[in-house]
Specification:
Layout: H1 6-17, H2 21-26, H3 33-40, H4 44-52, H5 54-73, H6 77-87, H7 104-124
């Protein structure tokens, strides 16, 4: 029979601590801290010291995170939320609005880009207007006619 290392027992202890009584029963684990100490051959007061030791808290947090992650993966929403909050990955859903203001120059610049794109598309399609489908040569002004009766049938 191999003897467990101190670190392995500490990890098992904090895994055990993170479980509810019903989970302990289901996994056939000791139900009390004293029972845990007896099962692992260590003095019960040692477990109390481990719980109070600040360096052990990181093991507890790691185990809590692991358990919350596993339960979250299983579809338990609250555990997934807990894991996300503890790891800094939680984003609270909140509505916000952004006010964007355009100047006349901004609108003119966007319109020029649209018109330029239409002209390029017109030239690519052999002189057929990409907006209305009429066969014309577009030199200086784009056709912005979107009425269906003006579209050619190809």
């Amino acid at each position: 029979m191999t003897r467990e290392t101190r670190e392995a027992i500490i990890e098992k202890f904090f895994d055990w601590l993170s479980l509810s009584d019903s989970e302990r029963k289901k996994k056939d684990l000791p139900l009390t801290q004293t029972d845990f100490a007896i099962a692992h051959g260590i003095p019960a007061p040692t477990l109390t010291i481990w719980k109070k030791n600040a360096s052990i808290d990181t093991v507890l947090v790691k185990n809590m995170l692991d358990n919350a992650y596993k339960l979250g993966i299983e579809g338990k929403y609250k555990y997934a939320e807990l894991w996300a909050k503890m790891t800094g990955n939680y984003v609270d859903k909140s509505e916000s609005s952004v006010k964007v203001e355009f100047t006349a120059n901004d609108y003119a610049r966007v319109a020029e880009q649209v018109i330029g794109g239409l002209r390029a598309s017109y030239a690519e399609h052999g002189g057929i207007c990409p907006v209305c489908g009429r066969f014309e040569i577009l030199l200086s002004e784009s056709c912005l006619d979107t009425e269906p009766q003006h579209r050619s049938k190809n």
